[in-house]
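Page 47, continued from p. 46.
Same chain as before, 169 aa.
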Amino acid sequence: MMHTKEHKVSPVEHFATVEAPYHFVESGLPNVYLAGIRYFTNEDGSQFAEIPALKQLMKLIASDLVLSADDLTGPEIRFLRKRLGQRAGEYCKLLGVEPETLSRIEHGKQNISSQVQKLARISYAVISADLELMGHAKSILESMIADMKKKRPKLVLEIDSNQEWREAA
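Result:
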């Protein structure tokens, strides 16, 4: 009987640069890339990276999401929730949505209202106790209050001689 020795191939080492960054899929976000780190590719094409200061990196990603003027996506809402250590059942109460709605939002199957986006940003800022983000949360709340105080223009309707309503001139 002949025994064959399994040939084990070592992963290939790479260095991520700005020009050729490492796609950080482990973040759960499709658009996060890292430079300045070592990463490895296995024979099957899978990759893994050595990521230093992971906690600081995740905090930076969350801060970027909270401060961004862009609309949040479902995966970004999920990222913020997970960074806060919130279970979906707890987090949906913070956002004022049903658990099924949060699930659809996080999986990209439902649009996210501007109110939910604001609440996601505010809740992250407050719960994380990041001072820079707290100032941003305050400005979000101030803009929400200002929006609530805006008065709708007066609508004056008059009835004409034919008993038909129309907007007054």
